[in-house]
């Protein structure tokens, strides 16, 4: 009986070549897995392409709801941003794809999985760390690190030699390497490899240019339950439906564009552009909801841990014990993050108009008012508070220790 290898398969040029290469190099039966995670393209055509190469076991699955509820929302509970700007749209999709690859491998009796990530990027790390965490004995085959097909022309020559049907024409070079899912779309390569060169206006696909967005703002209301958005403008929706709707609204107002030079885990700097309209809106709304429901020190602790949590996701450690422990702490903090947030969307900006929580707000108008608070807060108490906190500063000053001029 031939060994089986489960391949993460898109039906594009790279993974089509990989499919045939695995069949021949490893004398293996390839099982293909194609995930619909909201990339906006039909995934069903991958079935016919796989069948044309003799693949007998083909898995095509809609994972959009699981993607949002079990991966995107848990990440957003932490207000996760990598290096101050990146909302981790590509990074957070890899753990789900890896999970299904491993599950399918178990189901069909495969001892190996394979992916199309290159040897220069982060995705190879994310796929493989996840696979080993979920199935320690599995073999991961990364063709880009083994073969000598190091150009698009070489891949096309291979297709012609092995009669592989692909939707790719010689001489027509796609200007960017793109990756999309329900959270974002990314662009790399071509002119973007020069960090001084601005991206062309026609590169962006999901959002209008902020200057071309409507002159009239749109106001929306998000309802949160335990840190997750559950309704838009009073209408309860599934996570995927809500995010899809926010992508549409945000895109119309030019929200969510970013141009970043990031530090890859493999050691190099990389320039990429991203569109994350719905995620940008959710990030703003969630922080506003937390601002009135979270205890000060809990909020600050979360903010301190967030960069570490973001790095874990970016670097491929979603399935690590440390991420699991951090997630448990984050999720515990979210039990009180319940209420509503009003936001304004206008020409690339998201502004908070209001926030309220009938059950969990820590905002006490009687305490914060500048008018007579009826004894809720004794202003004279601040004298001792300031004296105690100034004590070490006064002692240092007496000794002549100066830390600034």
Describe it for me?
By secondary structure, the chain is α/β, with parallel strands linked by helices. The protein folds into three domains: 4-64 and 89-162, Rossmann fold, CATH 3.40.50; 177-294 and 337-356, Argininosuccinate synthetase, chain A, domain 2 (Alpha-Beta Complex), CATH 3.90.1260.10; 365-398, no CATH class. It has twelve helices and 14 strands. The strands form three sheets. The chain has a five-stranded parallel β-sheet, sandwiched between helices. A five-stranded antiparallel β-sheet has the order 10-9-8-13-14, covered by helices on one side. A hairpin with a 4-residue loop joins strand 6 and strand 7. The longest helix is centred in the last third of the chain and has 20 residues, at 296-315.
Order of helices and strands: EHEHEHHEHEHEEEEEHEEHHHEEHH
Shape: elongated
The count of DSSP E runs of length 2 or more, i.e. the number of strands, is 14
CATH topology of the largest domain: Argininosuccinate synthetase, chain A, domain 2
Strand content: 15-25%
**CATH C-level of the largest domain:** Alpha Beta
User: What's the CATH superfamily of the largest domain, by name?
Assistant: Argininosuccinate synthetase, chain A, domain 2
Q: Count the helices. How many?
A: 12
Helical content band: 25-40%
Strand arrangement, major sheet: 3-2-1-4-5
Low-confidence stretches: none
Distance between the termini: 79 Å
Radius of gyration: 25 Å
Provide the number of structural domains: 3
Largest sheet: 5 strands, parallel
- Give me the CATH architecture of the largest domain, please: Alpha-Beta Complex
Mean pLDDT: 94
**Structural class of the helices, strands and pairings?**
alpha/beta
């Amino acid at each position: 009986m031939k060994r089986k290898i489960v391949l993460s398969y898109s039906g594009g040029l790279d993974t089509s070549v990989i499919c045939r290469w695995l069949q021949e190099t490893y004398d293996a039966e390839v099982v293909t897995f194609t995930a619909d995670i909201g990339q906006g393209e039909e995934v069903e055509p991958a079935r016919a392409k796989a069948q044309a190469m003799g693949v007998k076991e083909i898995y095509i699955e809609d994972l959009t709801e699981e993607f949002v509820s079990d991966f995107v929302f848990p990440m957003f509970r932490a207000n996760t941003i990598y290096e101050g700007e990146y909302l981790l749209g590509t990074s957070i999709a890899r753990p789900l794809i890896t999970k299904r690859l491993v599950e399918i491998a178990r189901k069909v009796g495969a001892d190996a999985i394979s992916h199309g990530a290159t040897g220069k990027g982060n995705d190879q790390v994310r796929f493989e760390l996840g696979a080993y965490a979920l199935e320690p004995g599995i073999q991961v085959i990364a063709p880009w690190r083994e073969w000598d097909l190091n150009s698009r022309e070489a891949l096309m020559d291979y297709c012609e030699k092995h009669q592989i049907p692909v939707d790719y024409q010689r001489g027509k070079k796609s200007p960017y390497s793109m990756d999309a899912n329900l959270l974002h779309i990314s662009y790399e390569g071509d002119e973007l490899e020069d960090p001084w060169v601005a991206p062309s206006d026609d590169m962006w696909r999901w959002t209008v240019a902020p200057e071309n967005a409507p002159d009239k703002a749109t106001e929306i209301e998000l309802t949160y339950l335990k840190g997750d958005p559950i309704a838009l403008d009073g209408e309860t929706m599934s996570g995927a439906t809500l995010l899809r709707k926010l992508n549409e609204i945000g895109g119309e107002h030019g929200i969510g564009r970013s141009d970043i030079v990031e530090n890859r885990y493999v050691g190099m700097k990389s320039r990429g552009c991203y569109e994350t309209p719905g995620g940008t809106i959710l990030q703003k709304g969630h922080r506003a909801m937390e601002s009135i429901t979270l205890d000060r020190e809990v909020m600050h602790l979360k903010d301190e841990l967030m960069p570490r949590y973001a790095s874990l996701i970016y670097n491929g450690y979603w399935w690590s014990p440390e991420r699991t422990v951090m997630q448990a702490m984050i999720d515990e903090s979210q039990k009180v993050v319940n209420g509503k947030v009003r936001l304004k969307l206008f020409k690339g900006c998201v502004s908070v108009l209001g926030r309220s929580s009938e059950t969990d707000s820590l905002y006490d108008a009687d305490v914060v008012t500048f008018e007579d608070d009826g004894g809720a807060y004794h202003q004279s108490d601040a004298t001792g508070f300031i004296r105690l906190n100034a004590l070490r500063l006064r002692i240092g000053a007496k000794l002549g220790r100066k830390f600034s001029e």
